[in-house]
Amino acid sequence: MPIEYPPRISLARLPTPLQPLDRLTEKYSAPHGGPRLWVKRDDLTESGMSGNKLRKLEFIAGAARDRGCDTLITCGGIQSNHCRTTALVGARLGMRVQLILRGEHSGAADGNLLVDQLAGASCGFYPPREYFSRQAELFEYWRDFYEHRGHRALCIPTGASDGLGIWGYIAGAEELLEDCRALGFEPDQIICATGSGGTQAGLTLGCHLLGARSRVTGFAVCDSAEYFQQKVREDVSEWKAGREDATDPGKLDVTVNADYIGPGYAIADEAVYRTIAEVANLEGLLLDPVYTGKAFHGLLQELHGGRYQHCENLVFVHTGGHFGLFPHREHFGFLQ
Ligand SMILES: *Cc1c(COP(=O)(O)O)cnc(C)c1O
């Protein structure tokens, strides 16, 4: 049965390309009996709005339009790709955007924050402790602020990961499986970086709904494996509420690798920066230090250890993040 999708505003350039990574396969996978490596180029969903958040925001924007909202409120770190994408989506659709940003800011804006400002988003900055402990209150404060001024606001959770945003990667899974089918295979493994869980949740649920035997593994960039196992199931439960669907969130295969988080969220060891340089050099593919670079570095270690030996084809979903590379420029001193 075809999947019936809720209202959506088309914003991304789809389908994104699926490309083989033959030089990386030859160097890092084939010598260990591993699979052919492919990359699903979701860093090419758009230019300024590039990355995985745009797929989710197509459905969130659809809901905002249907509910008569003219304002989007969301949250994230100062270098949040999700906030940058939301800022541009709001501008594109003629909606106001209020960002609740974690961290302090002084001097010239860089990376994603610069784009937030260019897009005209209103930015509120909060110290991490306040950001985490008062998050619900902050959303409420800003929603009331706009509603008292005659606007209607839609609050979008971290990373647009919830029962609505999950549609983005149900559709993303359908597209990815179709790309592979057209090339004559079904991927044994699909891998993505996982940060707020929604991409992994959508890919996992999408593969389940489509009856694919592909296994989805999220490489965590923060929190823990247990956290994401629960978060993915929460998103799926929220998606399922009020639907006629037999999916049992508790029975989904939710595979998380939390071995490559390193020192912490958005903090990486030099090995990750070296992987970013090598992948750019070998394949012309640009990864970011917070998500895709860390996840891809983890994947190369796992290939080295023979983890994916039983697989023929492995697809890495490139979720974007380019703007976050430049604020990390001081970590690339080894290139000089
Ligand atoms: C947000 C983000 C992720 C993580 O996706 P989630 O759905 O939040 O788990 C991965 N890569 C990039 C570049 C991102 O911006």
TrEMBL record:
Domain of life according to the entry: Bacteria
- Domain Tryptophan synthase beta chain-like PALP, by residue range, is 9-320
The region annotated as signal peptide is: none
Q: Which cofactor does it need?
A: pyridoxal 5'-phosphate
Which InterPro entries does its entry note?
A: ACCD_DCysDesulf, TrpB-like_PALP, TrpB-like_PALP_sf
Give the UniProt keywords, A-Z: Pyridoxal phosphate
Q: Tell me the protein family, please.
A: Belongs to the ACC deaminase/D-cysteine desulfhydrase family.
What's the protein here called?
Answer: D-cysteine desulfhydrase family protein
